[in-house]
Amino acid sequence: MAESKRSSGEACRDSSPNSRPADSSDALRVRRSQRNTIDQPQTASQGSTEDFYSNKVLQDVFGECRSSSPVEGASCLHPSRKHLSLPTLDTFISESLKEVTRNELKASLQGSEPHTSLLTHSLQSQQAEIEGRLGPAESTFDILTSVGILLLDPDKLGITSHSNFSSIKGNCCVYEGKWVYELMLVSKGVMQLGWCTSKCRFTQEEGVGDTRDSYAYDGNRLRKWNITTKKYGEPWMSGDVISCAIDCDEGTISFYRNGVFLGEAFDKLRMGPGYAYFPANPRLVEVAQAELLFTYLHSLLPKVVEDDQVTKLEASGSNLKEDFPLPPLSDQCPQHVVHTIVASHIFHKLAPLLRIPYVVEMCLVKFMLGLCDHDNWNDHQPYVHKLLDLLWMLMQDQEMQECMDNLTVSLLNGYSFHSFHPEFKFPKKFLALTLSVLRHQRTRRYLLTSVLYPLWFSEYIIAYNARIKFPVFMHIKAPDDPNLARLIPNVWWDKTLKKEEDDGEDEQMDKPEETPAEKMNRKKFELCCERLGERIQELESMQVELLKCLLVNNDYLEGKTSRDLFLVRLKTFLRDHSTFNRPQVAQCSLPVILCFFHRLIQALRFYWDQTSVSSTEAFMPIQCFWNESRDYFELLRCGGLMSHLNRQLGSELNRAQGIEVQEDGKVVKKPVKDSASSKTEDDFPKLDPLLGSALEEILDCVVLLYHIAAHRQLGKMCALRESMLDFVVNLRDTERKIRKCPEELSEVKEYLEGAKMVFVEKIIEQARQMVWVEKVIYSPSKQADLAWLLGVVLKTVEKASQYNRLFQYIPEFYIETAVNAFNALRNYMHPTTSFHEIQGLPNLLNWYARFLVNHFFDSRLVNNDLKDTLVQALACFTCYPDTLKILEEMPMENRILMIQSLISPYENRSWAHTNWILVRIWKGCGFGYRYRYLPNLIPHKAQPTEFSYVSLQKPCPSQEFQSLLAKILLDDESRSTKFLDSLMNQLNWSFSEFVGIIQDIQSQGSRTEPLMLEPRQVKICAACFEISVCLLRVLEMVATVAPQVFTDWSRPSAELFLKRLMQLLSQIMSRVTMKEGPFENTVALPIHGLDTVTFYPILTVTVGIMAQLIVRCGGSSQEKATRSLLLDSSFSLDSLKFVLGENMAIRGKPDKAFSFRKFDEISVEEMEDVEKLFSYLSQQQVSLTATEEVVKDEELCTICYANRQQAVFVPCGHKSCRTCITQQLLNKKECFFCISPITRVNDLKGRQILREYFQSTAAHRKT
């Protein structure tokens, strides 16, 4: 980490692929010529032949300095020695290593530069005596100095914080000279790195930089810290190397980012006795020794590979004797033995070194990178595989375990924290090497068993579990902004972009014609995007190959394949990342999991297509879900807990499987029925066959992976697109202001120009980021993955639904995944990747529509929250013209089922969203109901996941469903009665709650102290008002499409419902239009959250219902509605004067008086209807007053005090009006007063009335 004259770390880092041994075919030709040479001395004995070949191998491998050394800077100078032979080889290697060690120590102790300091140790591993430094020979983190929760790697060179504020020191300190230590960042979060003295005491609140003698740099907040803070440095990124330098002689501290000097951060450090600063740097002797051994191995490896090539050709029956006559078999054996002996001598010294993490990272990984052909990454890599063969053959188990662990960590770190390259050279190198390692069968199985996703949580494994996260290999890290600018130097964006809620409002805006320069810039931008997409696609292909390698299913060993081992690890990964089972270590980030999800789908589909069933037809057979081995980590099934389902559905489960449990407990197979005619309704469809090979289980894991993590990340990416869209709109608005700004307002114009520059800079920055998002996250291939997953889930649910109650075995997350996947395709990926470009979209939409309609009111779903999710999804589905058309084109039985479910009684279920679906069917047809948002409001921002987003869509009423609703209400009287009763009950409740809250607000507003409202109270107030308006809109639709349910009094409940409706309308009009009443005062107050509480929405729908039943119906219906309204005691014509703006004198504010005439949303025809309504009601009120009878108090109904007593209850004899008893009989058949059962109701003359309410009871008794 510290600077030195010779840095072996740098020497290894730049190893070129050109150092890879010669091509195998060239090596084979060399080997054949060598064999001919060996065969020439016919008189030589076998022993002399062995000596000749072994000497040649030793000379080639251990000769003088080789130009093809794979490791730059490796020591190759050997002293003059006696003749080298196999018996003296071990001594030769030992002496060479001692010489390298002496040279390394000498170089470190004789550093010429004053700022260079290197930690050394003697051959006896004693502590080095270096001036200016105190501490152990090896510099590491000191766990004894840690504060907070920290996870320390086994080599003590890596840490992970698991608390809000953690600190740790190094195990050595410096007091004079120039020193530097380096840290590579795993994340870009808030951290403070620097120096401190031993006197600093850290806490959970104070760390380095927060005390007097500690100094720190924070690249996240761009600050330097020493009690106080100032701006300093550059923003850091994950993978950056931060160098912390201290000059104890001058008393200064400086920092570097990736070798770039950030400037002097601190000066005037306190020095002298008692002051020493932590920490320092590690050793390099072992690295130099490993470099020499790998130089030997580099020369030996081609000969070993060549041996294997010849052996394979001979085994395949190739006749090599025609071109190159082979030596006798007795002459071939010693060559393989010689190679093995030489390799064993090398690994005898190398194996202990490969247990050291930084030796593996700095030497082994660099050596393997040189052996791997990165350009032809999908080809066989013989040199890498032969090296792994030697490792497994010549290293002990414990050595191999540590080596493989360190190798995996080094590969992961190398891939995750590589330097940026425009061609993505470094990630490609590490992916190619990782792929070649995993294609080695023994290594792959070991990694799957013991390294990737470990199951045993010992202290050692826990540390590696935090570091070895295989899904990170599936992630493509986004470059920072400067590097992204290198990838995309030219930026273009559509200057006419606008939000969806603004569609059609600025249609007059012409698209500006592009200049030649803009056209050229656009072409360059598109070319850069295309190139970036190609590079990313290549990386993704390599990542998919990695997973294909782990999913191979033909390497059986001990009854398991790699696919079986991978599945176990995948389930462990899902358990650790589920919400119910939090792991003890850090989880993978959401971007990593999303990439892992997409690559896993590609690999799964590849293997699925190799079976007899295409992946386009993939689904999960239902028998997979009732298997008790399927562990979902406490996630519920659609019918509840698994144990409960087994108790309730055991017999049905046996029938579905075709088995029968006899009385003695014996399980027998039931005979299969041959003909379809012999089957009954209780018979289940034949179970679909399983593919086997664990493919269904992996598919199940893919669905769960999307549910627990991938979907959340897809939603987060929308924020960037929305932010860029805001800036584009603001830029366009600013440019319009600049054009209109007068020249004399120079300061204003200058301010606008400055704002324009800010907007342009942000758009350029975010446009580049959006290109990355489009290519990596929202690309067409990712859209295809998600569409495929949606199809899989929909087919799974549809197939399972055929098994009646056994459908309840389906996990709930399958239902949620279907809804979330469609939402992601429709709202997250669209419009970046157009929703309408999905292959097979019409079939997918039809499938999804049937899924929603069949299950949003499915009694087999026991979780009410799950039902709410489906109802909300159906509500969103009705908001778009294209999807609404899909619903209208469903088979008639599905449409009828949908409407019947929507108008079922509202009690004991979620009704707000089902009512909202009916509102969307009507929106665009009601009185003044053609707006997208209220006239007094600007459309607010809403996340695409929120229900309010779809409410801003253009109205798209459905005449088809309106007609179907009318037919059902008129044909099914019982269903109609229950629906209207529950509808009015809910309206009465919601409006009463709303009135109570606004009365409380008025009471608080009348006090002298400032008005302070609880957010919850405001939210409930707004919700109750909105619910009331929606319920009224549904009543308006019913009154329009099926007015007979109110006006045809031959229907048993029509009169009751008409009077109840008019009573509700009268009360609403009276409360809302009351002079200086609670509603008026609440609307006048500037209360945040009550913007939607205004006169317009509730008065338009109330007046609209009156106009429909009184003005537009005519005839006897008009007369009935008019009489019911005028006879209600709470009705007043002043409320109609209020909406016409004729009540100005009451307000005293003519300019602020409310009037329908002020709103463009109300048509001329509708205003004429309101005027006719007012005129007609005024005339009828006069006539009604003239003919009104005086009713004695004792003759009035004691329930409502509005009507005469007309009904007598039998047998108790109590009396009430017909309206009140009718409403009572809708819910229960008992007397108001004595609560005794009512067997019949008579009129005052003793004749039975309301006979229909007792028919069902009589029929039930008869049955």
From TrEMBL:
Record-annotated RING-type domain positions: 1197-1234
Domain of life: Eukaryota
Keyword Zinc on entry: yes
Lineage, top ranks: Eukaryota, Metazoa, Spiralia, Lophotrochozoa, Mollusca
UniProt domain B30.2/SPRY: residue ranges: 119-299
Entry-linked CDD domains: RING-HC_RNF123
Protein name: E3 ubiquitin-protein ligase RNF123
Alphabetically ordered keywords of this record: Metal-binding, Zinc, Zinc-finger
Recorded GO MF terms: ubiquitin-protein transferase activity; zinc ion binding
GO cellular component terms, A-Z: cytoplasm
Keyword Metal-binding included in the entry's annotation: yes
Region of interest: Disordered: 1-51
Composition skew (Basic and acidic residues), residue ranges: 1-13
Annotated GO biological process: proteolysis involved in protein catabolic process
Biased composition annotated in UniProt, kind: Polar residues: 35-51
InterPro entries: B30.2/SPRY, B30.2/SPRY_sf, ConA-like_dom_sf, RNF123/RKP/RSPRY1, SPRY_dom, TPR_RNF123/RKP, Znf_RING, Znf_RING/FYVE/PHD
